[in-house]
Write a structure and sequence with these properties.
single chain; alpha/beta; Spore Coat Polysaccharide Biosynthesis Protein SpsA, Chain A; 2 domains; 10 helices; 8 strands; 50% helix
């Protein structure tokens, strides 16, 4: 840790999208939180901070607000991406600019409590490499809570998330983890997958969860499904193994059904020809074949895009 006079630098990284009217409130909360912690320090330990704000090509004027904040405070860095690359890509751009001993990720809408950042800091200093805040009482809609539950179960099965770990977008990591993450060169980053492959020394701490200061979540059903597909195909071949298992299972069912038809034809002379069952079987098998081909195609397509060196993000401007 790069400490001088018992000083620790915190880097707050926030991807910004449709947050023109909320980002200043979050920034002010970060300032107040660090100031209060330093005022309460009894051992001479002090914290400094930097705030990295990444405009993910937001349709509102959040970039104008970021420039105002950066001009007024040298501790604020602004990054403007050339197009909407997505939350995880925006975080990667922010991590590349972060220089702190500890890197804290949080949202731009006020739902993640910046005022409780030092809960994560204190837990991290118990010896963990990464600590996630988790919400005992979530303020998300039922749809988002269900999506988070599905994501957790799939992450446990496919990318090795510990079953006792609860992940959110509010987490802290040590500098060496952030440096390892930004080495990932491909255009499909999935932050949790990158964390899990870098370390198993993970912690949790309970934090409050608030309602958004303004607006609604930018994630739609299609967006959440795309995020899941991105994470699981980028960091695991288990879906391909599952496809193999499904193919073998369908083959066994088909073979067993064929034996049953032959047996019935021999033992029951007047057995009717099953048009409906035949059609159902063909539709089922055809559907499974198309599903498995689509899954394989997803992997092949990602390999093709990576070979063509599609950019992870493109920075239009910095302040």
């Amino acid at each position: 840790m790069s400490e001088q006079n018992n000083l620790t630098l915190l880097s707050f990284v926030l991807p910004c999208y449709r947050s023109e009217n909320t980002i200043e409130t979050v920034v002010n909360e970060i300032r107040t939180t660090v100031k209060n912690r330093n005022a309460e320090s009894k051992d001479g330990r002090t914290f400094d901070y930097e705030i990295v704000l990444v405009n993910d090509c937001s349709p509102d004027d959040v970039w104008g607000k970021i420039k105002q904040l950066a001009c007024a405070d040298k501790k604020i860095k602004g990054i403007c991406l050339a197009k909407n690359f997505g939350q995880h890509n925006a975080l990667m751009a922010g991590y590349a600019e972060a220089t702190g001993d500890y890197v804290i990720s949080l949202d731009d809408d006020g739902q993640t409590p910046a005022s409780e950042s030092f809960k994560l800091v204190d837990k991290l200093e118990e010896g963990f490499d990464v600590v996630y805040g988790y919400y005992e009482h979530s303020a998300q809609h039922l749809f988002r809570r269900f999506g988070s539950w599905v994501n957790k179960k799939m992450a446990e099965a496919i990318i090795g998330q510990p079953k006792t770990l609860k992940t959110t977008s509010f987490f802290i990591m040590k500098q060496f983890i952030a440096k390892e993450i930004v080495q990932y060169p491909n255009p499909f980053p999935y932050i949790s997958g990158l964390v899990f492959r870098a370390t198993q020394n993970l912690g949790n701490v309970a934090v409050s969860h608030r309602h958004r200061l303004q607006g609604e979540s930018g994630y739609t059903i299609a967006g959440l499904i795309g995020l899941w597909v991105n994470g699981f195909t980028a960091f695991s071949v288990k879906p391909l193994r599952a496809a193999t298992f499904i193919g073998i299972l369908c083959a066994i069912i088909g073979f067993a059904a064929g034996l049953f038809v032959i047996y019935e034809k021999i033992t029951v002379a007047a057995a009717p020809i099953g048009y409906a069952s035949l059609l159902s079987t063909l539709l089922f098998v055809g559907g499974m074949i198309m599903f498995l081909l689509g899954l394989i195609g997803e992997y092949v397509g990602r390999v093709y895009i990576c070979i063509n060196q599609a950019p992870q993000y493109v920075i239009r401007e910095k302040v």
